[in-house]
Amino acid sequence: MPKSHRSFWAVAFLISAGIDFLFWKKSVGISFFIWSLLAMGGAVYLLYREGHRPARESIWLGFMITGLALIPLIRTEPFTRSVGVLVALFALMVLATTLRNGYWSAYTIWDVIRALAVFLFSSVTRPFTLLITRSDSLKSTQGNFITRQGWAVLRGVMLALPVVGVLALLLASADIVFAERLLSVWNVLRLENLPELLFRVFYIAVFTFIFCGVLLHAVLPSSDVQPTPIDKRIIPPFLGWTESSIVLGSVNLLFLFFVVLQFRYLFGGQVNIHETGFTYAEYARRGFGELVWVACITLLLILILNTISQRETPAHQRGFIFLNSLLIGLVLVILASAWQRLTLYEQAYGFTRLRTYTFIFIPWLGLLMLTVLGLLVAHQMRRVAQVIFLFTVGFGWLLGIWNIDGWIVRQNVQRTLEGYDLDGDYLQSLSADAVPEIIRQTQQKDLPEAARHELLIGLACRTSQFPSLKPAWQSFNLSEDRAGKLLSMNTSLWQAYPVKKDTNGVYVIQNGTPRYCQPLNHWD
What we know:
Blueprint: H1 5-23, H2 30-49, H3 56-69, H4 71-74, H5 78-97, H6 109-141, H7 145-174, H8 176-188, H9 194-219, H10 241-265, H11 270-275, H12 280-284, H13 288-308, H14 314-349, H15 353-377, H16 384-402, H17 404-416, H18 424-428, H19 435-442, H20 449-465, H21 478-489, E1 499-502, E2 505-510, E3 513-516
Antiparallel strand pairs: 1-2, 2-3
């Protein structure tokens, strides 16, 4: 049991109250970074208070989480922020399970599942043991302590209320700012706000209970989930070599047939595709999402067969590695086909968010497949859990560094230099991440005038729609702050496009006719 029950409850309350203070009716910004540091800092404080230290591997994991928590601060693109937050929360759960021992770096996939199951169970059960132990301790020392202390608190409140009330009225009369702040506090306590206030108190209490269990499990785990020994398998292999080789061989034949067609019809150029009756763009836009799913399912198949297949002789082991190596090689060709299809489609129709996510994910998935192949050849497949985890964290970082919306602007403007039209309405709907790149592209000397007008109209609309009031500091975002400053500094660029508003919305006068602005933060 902990040395101090109150410390765990106090830290858990601070983390829970932080959720309410930082996120209630506020968009995510710097708040998630602060809350992540608060959660990790609280756990480390309790760890040292109990006489322990975090493992070195846990410290490295903490740095990874910090990097992920920065993404909602530096980006406004929705998918990037969502990936950063979700991966950071998952990493925080992993950190809570292995704070003292750092076992996460040696876990298998099965170990991760077991550790998270124990973590979730402890989060909702450990606080009960703390409450019961505390209650028994109080009964054994002072039976009527709570009653006497309760009456003392009540008397103190009754004496303090009139004194504080009179002094508060005098101070409010002496200072207008203090009076406004006092009035805002009073408005929070008004009767119509009571349901909301009760709900917030309720969920803070629930979170406090859960986080107390999380902290207890992180600092004083009742049992550690040990990494599976190298020579032990959780699931004994039960599928014979003949069966597994037939499965792998069949999939290889299927993929080989598909790859042959890809070399002829896709990698072979437009002539071969036209023979089938399809245009190049029609052929390219079909199936790149399905091909990515094929690669993901194949990776899962390799992991399952590696676990359940019997390989009793060295020849069987070599055969298994060969079939899987061939399979991964064919999958890489399929991923290359999907990437080529996507590239052709983007050249024909332009970049969007969804296409850009896939454009980035395909090479990342291919690199993961190559890494798994290396583990397979080196007989280190037990490390696949760490590899997948690190690749997931890395993908979150990559999205944060990449700037999806800025990339979309740059690529679509580049297409206009090749003779394509520019979809200004779509660029206008992107997040604040796109603003610096849009302004930069408007200043290109060789940019077609039609494209320049599209960009300037979008900036004029964006300026009129940009929030005039600063959000709460908890929602502060570096990208939005930079976009706001750039828009206010460069208004002279789009003075030729006055913005007006009617019942149908905001619009810009273009050649004497209204052109309505697109809403910001569009999700495609």
